[in-house]
Amino acid sequence: MTPVRTDGWPAWPPPPTAEQRERLLRVLDGGQWGATQGTETETFAAAFADSVGAAHGVCTVNGTVGLFLALRALGVRPGDEVVVPAYTFVASATAVVLAGAAPVVADVTDTLHLDPAEVDRLAGPRTRAVMPVHLAGAPADTEALREVAARRGLAVVEDAAQAHGASRHGRPAGTLGDAACFSFQSSKAMTAGEGGVVVTGERRVYERLWSLHNVGRTLGGGWYDHPELGWNLRMTEFQSAVLHPQLPLLDAQIDHREARAATLARALEPVEGLEPVPDPPGTTRHTRHLMMLRYDGAAFGGRPKADFVAAMAAEGVPLDAGYRSLSREPSLTPYAVRTGPCPVAEAAEESVVWVRQPMLMADDRAMGQIAEAARVVGERFRR
Ligand SMILES: Cc1ncc(COP(=O)(O)O)c(C=O)c1O
Questions:
Q1: Is residue 93 a contact partner of residue 326, using CB atoms and an 8 Å limit?
Q2: Which of 198, 209, 201 is nearest to 178 (CA)?
Q3: Pairing state of beta strands 283-285 and 338-339?
């Protein structure tokens, strides 16, 4: 049988632009490849921070390390606790462990973002920070989370690894907490293969971030002066040369994905048992890093999600099965001090599938084919 879709899907990242090639070669030929030698990384960090309305930015080796730096810069220490959502990439929690602290795993709301009520319930005397994850490209409910954080004296670190260009009530991701981390890993909306940036509105936090990622040096201080403990966690000039020209392209790419996501949502309306996970109320810019769909096996002949994902792949539609709830993540169990009941995240583990960003870079016809594949698979499963 011919699959519903026989064409491939757009590659990610898109082909390099002339400006990327030129900038990359300029760095290569210039011989100043490290961030302490050239100016590409400093310039890019400032431009990125500016693009999200944050005063300062520090580039680092990846998003995980960015979260680690933000937690340390905001005063998280060994023995402290940080509340993280149960439905996220494991790095949100492993960054907490890297900082010597213990993750507290809290359930999510129906949008699959961190539930502020659960944060309030689970935070204890050792809790120092909370990490809203802007899952799929939509900011978490940071007003409610900041209210809880303010009342309990917690720092707010945004995990914006998936949310370059997102906003909530018109305020950009990156300005919704005390510091925010974006990833430039290869699947992300802006990428250099690897990399990350931490942004903040506060000079004091910036100076700490800068020092921690630069071997404990101080801005304007000597090369061998290390007033505090730090590490070499700098990003290279090559990465910045590849990243900087992506900044002006981001908006149009988000527009494209938003339009495709709307087409797909419409095309799925008649398909019983497969519907978009709702966006957090207050989302003003969703970057559609992922479009998350809820699969209801009851409408598909009682077949589990794994069967659906395999059948869709056979139809030329490679969906992603998504995360395991962190409440069930074996590698985390020895480190997570508390895990609240996580029925919503655990149900998502069983029922949520993702359409990834590169697929949303395709055309409207492709969105129709995703829905058609789901219809065909449903018919087959119910027979
Ligand atoms: C939600 C989330 N947090 C953190 C990370 C970690 O970023 P990185 O892979 O750049 O370390 C990622 C992506 O990989 C992510 O999706």
A1: yes
A2: 201
A3: unpaired
Tell me the residue length of the chain.
383
For a mutational test of ligand 1's pocket, the pick from 59, 65, 185, i.e. the residue with the most ligand atoms closer than 8 A to its C-beta, is 185
Closest alpha carbon to 287 in 373, 187, 214, 378: 187
Class of the CATH domain delimited by 35-246: alpha beta
| Every domain of the chain and the residues it spans | 35-246, 249-382
- 115-164 pLDDT tens trace: 999 999 999 999 999 999 999 999 999 999 999 999 999 999 999 999 99
Any alpha helices (H) in the chain, and if so which ranges?
A: 18-30, 40-51, 63-73, 91-98, 116-122, 142-152, 203-212, 237-243, 250-268, 305-314, 343-351, 357-360, 364-382
Please state, rounded to an integer, the average pLDDT across all residues of the chain: 97
* CA 183 to ligand 1 center in whole angstroms: 6
Task: Using alpha carbons, select from 280, 302, 57 the residue that is nearest to residue 181.
Answer: 57
Q: 222-265, pLDDT tens digit by residue?
A: 999 999 999 999 999 999 999 999 999 999 999 999 999 999 99
Least Cα distance to 141 among 283, 277, 254 occurs for 283
Ligand 1 cavity residues, CB under 6 Å: 62-64, 88-89, 91-92, 133, 159, 161-162, 183, 185, 196
CATH superfamily assigned to domain 249-382: Aspartate Aminotransferase, domain 1 (3.90.1150.10)
Q: What is the pTM of this model?
A: 0.98
SS3 assignment for 329-374:
CCCCCCCCCEECCCHHHHHHHHHEEEEEHHHHCCCHHHHHHHHHHH
